[in-house]
Amino acid sequence: MKRIALAATLASAVALQSAWAQEDRVWVDGELSYGLDVVPPDVVDTSPEQDRIRSGFDGEIGVNYDLGPAIVRASAGARIFPSESDYNRYPLAIAARYDVPLTSDNRTRLRFQPSYEYVFGNDGRVFDRPRLDTQLIHRHNPEHTTTLRLRYGYRNQTERRFSGYDQSEWLGEVRHFWRPNGGPTRITGSLLGLRADADDDRFSYNGYGAQLIARTDLRDDLQAYGRVYFAHRDYKAPFSSLYPYDRSDNTLRVTAGLEKRLNERFSLFGEAGYARNNSNVPTRQYDGFVGRIGIILR
Length: 298
What we know:
- The structure is a single chain.
- The chain is mainly beta.
- It has a single domain (2-297), classed as monomeric porin ompg (Porin, Beta Barrel), CATH 2.40.160.40.
- It is built from one helix and 14 strands; from the N terminus they run H-E-E-E-E-E-E-E-E-E-E-E-E-E-E.
- It has one helix at 2-21, and strands spanning 26-38, 53-66, 70-80, 90-101, 108-121, 124-141, 144-157, 167-178, 186-198, 205-219, 222-238, 246-261, 266-279, 286-297.
- The chain has a 14-stranded antiparallel beta barrel with strand order 1-2-3-4-5-6-7-8-9-10-11-12-13-14.
- The protein is globular, with a radius of gyration of 20 Å.
- It starts with a helix and ends with a strand.
- The relative contact order is 0.12.
- This is DUF560 domain-containing protein.
- Residues 1-21 form the signal peptide.
């Protein structure tokens, strides 16, 4: 694991040096934060009294390269839980974005976003996942944009801790962006369709959800934002011998925050809210405060 982390660090350093040498076509972005949040979904703990909301550090740095018709991004990150190192995750990813105009005025376009993610923990690989994200985007006018989105991914999970979690993942989304009167307020609403087909049916589900995101300028260097997310999932098989029935979850997450711009590249942010998973399986149920403070590099 240390060799992989060292290689990632060296690759990031080389990429950063290249980025500063080619400012017009290459740029760096990233984020570093500390706070309380939900542990990864593949964390296994059979105790009904477990706490699935833990404090931790979250960080990512990415290098973007504009090729003209496409943008390529490579990134490395870390999610560290001081109280439980087995939960730690270190993702490496490569992604691209390619737009195909469908009209001469570019108001309607197709967007393709292929990506590959490799995630390891303190004891080796956790999973890797290729994805293809396809979006049909139509800009009605400066105030309104509608997007139809379909994303497919395949999660190849290590079987070191448990088996049957390898799965095909589908996400369908209808999204609408609204900027009232072309002003500083931006509102995005989404309807979601969710599906996972896992090797073990107790991890397979069908579901649906909705999301609302709003952001507005309070002044030139200060923004306020909020997000509401809800999802319902029905699983396809009994969860375990201890809980011999099909699992059903309702997930709710509500957060609000402020972002303070320091200069053209750096911003500070802080956000707080509430997260809940109301599940008929006690080991998958949680609710409580979530929040983060951090810095953003653009």
